[in-house]
Structure formats: C-alpha cells, structure tokens
Write a structure and sequence with these properties.
The chain is an all-alpha fold. The protein is built from 14 helices and no strands. The radius of gyration is 18 Å and the shape is globular.
C-alpha cells in the first residue's frame, strides 16, 4: 500500500515514469496497481491501454468497496475515449454505492463523476448542481486537489452555457491551487510528461482525445474524416474542436495548428 500511495503522489505531480515504477512495485508485494496504472496510461496518451486495463479491473471486482475504488477512474477513462454511455452507467453504479454508505468522501467522488458525465453529455445545467455539491464536500474534507479538479469541470460547464467569464475565473482559481500543490492538470498532452500548471489559454489541459483530434486538424482533415478515423460521431468531433479552440485561445483551425506546433503539442 505504501508503494501504491507513493505512485499516487508521483502521478498527481506529473512524474509518470516514477509513478509507474511505484505501482509495479506495489503489485510485486501483492497490491493491485489499478486504477493508478490505468490513469498513468491515460496521462501518457495511451487511451486504449488505459481503457483495457480499467475495464479488466472493474470486471474482476467482486465487492462494492473495490468497485468504489475503481469506478471513478473508469468514468474518467471512458469519457476520455468518448464512451459516454459506459461512463454514465458506471457513474450511476457509483452513485448507488455512495447512497448506501455514510461516507462523505464517496459522496463527493460520486457527485464529481456524475457532473463529469453530464458535461460530456451536453447537460451543463444539470452538471452544475452535482459539481457544486462535490466542490463543497471536497472543501469540507480539506481535499484541495480534488476541489480544484472539480472547479475545472465547473468551468467547462459554465463555458458550455456561454458563461465564459465565470469559466475563466473558475479555471484561474483551480490552476492557482494546483500550482501551489505542485500538481498537474488532468489530461495533459499525450506522449509527454506533464509539465507544470500554466495560465489559462496555454493548452496544458488538452485531453489525450483532444490531442488526437488536434493532430488530424493539423493534417487538414475534415470533422467527418476525423470522426471516421477515430470511430466517433461528427458532433463529438465538433465538440472536441470547440474545446481545443478555447483551450489554445485560437480563432480558427489554422491558428490552432500554428499554436500547437509552437507549443510542441504535435510533432514538427
């Protein structure tokens, strides 16, 4: 367990290689490496490997306690791979477990997962209530990292509703906390070690899936072509492109491509 917890700390600080080694050492002593190792794979941009690992772990879970430990990561990874239906089912399962347990931490995790699914499902107004509840729970539990991650979800919900000013304020507040903690923003660019938290508009929270879309935008692919290549709907591609524009501060696809090359988000 000590090795696993060390892996968690290293992962949250962006030291993915060291975190992986710690999780594998935990496994050597009999502690399963999931969900931490799957989240490392997600942060490294290996989304298919992350999905396969967390899927297998959840399938082998035999009790609610183990499921409660795995399901939040399952939701996060399923959303990163655009499997919203599977994420929604897992979030519902987590909420049911939380409802039967007198555990504020679990209630916060369940609410955060619910909110993340609702944001991905184009239901930002519904998401706000759950995310605000989760944020308040994290504050009461004195869990600033989780509270900051929840704020980033709140920012996305606000942005989806057109409240860009509140979205900016929530993002700045979350990034300040994460910077103080030495943490990184979930969803750093794939294929590289996450760097330090940066100011809004610097592209540090481009998700692995968004990076896959961005690389194809840079190659001149249309939304339909991108959807066909990644096996996702054109509407989902449009949402990813819109998110990329906001995160990079780009006015159009050409500007997003130029910024991506400038910041080394895609190969030169």
């Amino acid at each position: 367990m000590a090795h696993y917890q060390l892996g968690e700390l290293l992962r949250l600080r962006g030291a993915l290689g060291e975190a992986e080694a710690a999780y594998l050492e935990a496994q050597r002593f009999g502690r399963p490496p999931q969900p931490g190792l799957a989240l490392v794979r997600l942060a490294q941009g290996e989304v298919d490997a992350a999905a396969a690992a967390i899927d297998a772990a959840v399938a082998g879970a035999g009790d609610p306690v183990t499921l409660a430990r795995l399901l939040p990561a399952f939701v996060e990874i399923m959303l990163a791979t655009d499997r919203v239906d599977r994420a929604r089912s897992a979030a519902d399962q987590l909420a049911a477990i939380a409802a039967n347990a007198d555990a504020p931490f679990l209630a916060a995790v369940a609410a955060m997962s619910d909110g993340a699914v609702m944001v991905a499902d184009d239901r930002p107004r519904d998401a706000m209530e759950r995310l605000r509840f989760a944020w308040q729970q994290w504050r009461e539990l004195e869990a600033p990292y989780e509270a900051a991650r929840t704020q980033l979800l709140v920012a996305r919900a606000c942005d989806a509703m057109g409240d860009h000013e509140t979205a900016r304020l929530e993002t700045e507040s979350a990034r300040t906390v994460l910077g103080q903690l030495g943490g990184v923003v979930a969803g750093e660019p794939a294929g590289r070690e996450p760097g330090p938290v940066t100011a809004p508009g610097q592209g540090s929270d481009v998700s692995p899936r968004e990076l896959q879309v961005l690389r194809r935008v840079a190659r001149g692919r249309t939304n339909r072509e991108i959807g066909d290549e990644l096996f996702i709907s054109t509407k989902t591609v449009e949402r990813h492109v819109s998110n990329i524009m906001v995160k990079l501060g780009a006015a159009n696809r050409a500007a997003a491509t130029a910024i991506a090359y400038e910041r080394d988000l895609i190969p030169g």
